[in-house]
Description:
The chain has helices at about 1-30, 35-55, 65-90, 95-100, 100-115, 120-140, 155-180, 180-200, 205-210, 215-240, 245-250, 255-265, 270-290, and strands spanning about 120, 295. By secondary structure, the protein is mostly helical. The protein has a two-stranded antiparallel sheet.
Amino acid sequence: MTEIVFISLAVLLRVVSNPQGNVFQKQLTQQGSHPLWVNFLTYLLLATICLIGLIFLDAIELSKDFWIYSILGGIFGAVGNGLLVKALQKGDLSILGPINSYKSVIGLVFGIFLLGEIPNLWGIVGIFIIIYGSYLVLDTTEERFTLALLRNKEIQFRIGAMILTAVEAVFVKKVILASSPTIAFTSWSIFGAIFSFLLVLAFRINLRHELKHLTVNAVSKLLLLIVCIGMMQLSTNYVFKNMDVGYALSLFQLSIVVAVLLGYRIFQESNICKKLIGSTIMIIGSVLIILFHGYTK
């Protein structure tokens, strides 16, 4: 019973902290910061805190699998989160948040090949319900729910981010199994910082220009962003430790309603009622995957 309570609290913390972090990411890019720079600073500051914490931890022997999956997770996470911040720069939070519900679908697909998880009938039903809900949400865009929507750069970035972070979730789970949620968080932060810095170098971000945007207001938002992302990843790791990835990713989709409400409240985004209805339908699809065991081994 106690474990269920802790898992529920971790899911709630993740559901709230993730979209709130997206708000700060969007605000920082709107103030002129480059998305890849915001991504790098987030990882860097979290990694710095983790490195300080390592001083107080006893040294342990880590397996080869730990290092392999940490590196792979770092690559997929750095690129995926970089694309996410880029999508949030100009895209509506109330659109991009609900799109993330497809992550549970991707989780099921990749689970077939990487974790041996085979969708059953209810899993398939849940997938179709999620797709129908997304139709209502995406039908509020200028391109509506058509192939033309895929020409929208923000949608392309968000889909790319979703796919990469869904695969990253599998690697994070592997790292947790090879160590612990806390050590996995440390490796996630450090390797994320390394690979996000390589992205900054690869795209030749003007660091001097970016430093000019670090005003008092920007720094305060950055610190709040770090708190949100830190809580999001720590709670994610705890849930992954105690739950299969496919179920966890489905539960995390409860955050899409929070994303829609924040988009309306903070950025005055439109068509809120239709987006909420679509988001609720997508959540129902995710819940079906969970309650009726959307996959079997």
